[in-house]
User: Fold this.
Amino acid sequence: MVKMENLKFIDSGGSCFQVKGGDWSFYNCTISCAHASSIRVENDANVHLSKCIIGGEGKVGEAITISAYGALQEQGLVKNTGFGVHATGTSSVNLFDCIIRWCSSSAIIMLQNSIVKLDNCLFQHVRAAFMSGSEFGRQLCVKESRTKCVRKLWEDDDRPHVCEFFGENIFENETSCSECAEAF
Assistant:
C-alpha cells in the first residue's frame, strides 16, 4: 500500500492526483485543483482518504488586473475544480471525515463499476454533491454526512446501481451563500 500523510497537492494539472491502480491511503492531505478533478481514481485502484480536504481553492484574494510591460495579468480569481473525486472503472474510493469543496460540476462523479463510500464527510461550496452520468457507477454509500452551501444533491437524474444513505445525513439546498455567488 502506498501511504501519503500530511501533504499538500495544489493545482497540478488536468487531475491534480491520478491513481490508476493499487492500494493507496491519504491521511490529513489537501488535494486542490483548478482543473478537471482533484483526484481521479481509475481501473481497479483502491483509495482511502481520511481527514483530507479535496476540491478547489475557492476565492483566492481580491480580483485585480495588473498591467506590466504590455501584459495583462489577473489575480484573485475563484479557483474551482470540476469534480472533487472522479471514480471510474472498477475502482473503490473510501472517504472518512473529509471536506469536499469548491467543485463547479459535482463533488463526486462515479462511472462504470466504481464504488464510493463516505463516512462523516462535509460537502461545502459545491454545485452538486453527486453525479453518476449515463454510466451510473456500481455503489454509493453515504453515512453521517452533511452539506454547507450546496445547490443540489444530484447534478443529474441518473443514480448508481446501489445507492444507500445511513445514519443522520443532513442535506440542505442553499443558494444564498455570498461566497458561492461569484463561483457558480
Summary: The first strand starts at residue 2 and ends at 5. The CA atoms of residues 15 and 37 lie 5 Å apart. The mean pLDDT is 86. The chain is about 0% helix and 55% strand.
